[in-house]
Amino acid sequence: QPAATPYETTEVAEQDETDVLGADPFEADPLEGAWPDERAHGTRVLPWDDEQGWPEAAPEPRTPLLERARRALLLAVLGGAVTAAVVAVPLLAVTSLMLVVWLLRSGSIAAGTVGARRQERGRRWWDGPRLLLGAPWDLVRSIPSTLVLQLWSLGLALAAGLLCYAVALDVPSTLAVTGAVLVGSLWWGPGGSRVRSPVGRVVRPLSATLGVWAVSLALVAVAGAGAAYLALDGVDWTPLEGRPLSGVTVPALQR
How close are the terminal C-alpha atoms of the chain, in Å? Predict the structure, then answer.
């Protein structure tokens, strides 16, 4: 038997069912129970949506095939007219073409600047006057990139002319090939998008309706035919009196 102790013996009380430690609070899901029970309340928690509830803009309708064909034909006839002008009056035509490319590119840069400002702060009444006042600066800042495009195009045209000279083509045929290469290089060359954009702004509305397109095509075709008719009388090298480098011969290429 155990030895007697001076302390009174106590009975262990029965454990209360509510006095029980639950699961480890550090292991429990902190978000568990934070949201109401969908089944109990009949609601559903939706995910957070950061997007505005504006309807999406409808995509622009695709241009009809016939209208795109009219645009392509008008541009092709325009390129042919410019090529015919290069054959008829090479120096004047090339000089005028370079000036037109410069003006088109500077105007495209100016319009792009105004469009970027309008996207940021909307339209303002001073956009027009500011565009006119900034035109001289746009002409100046477009010179470097325009020179790159022009020199690149002139280089390709010169290479095409040398190939024509190597196969002994006559002068009008050589000028026709050179003019076509020059026009194509200015259109698709580096920075040519600044040329295509303003020209496209004119060609697109002209090609929208059949009647206006037919009149425009006829006018461009008449201009090209007139230049080709002038070329039949011989190449006009104005402002020079004769063909440049006419007295220079390359012995290796003589036949």
Answer: 140
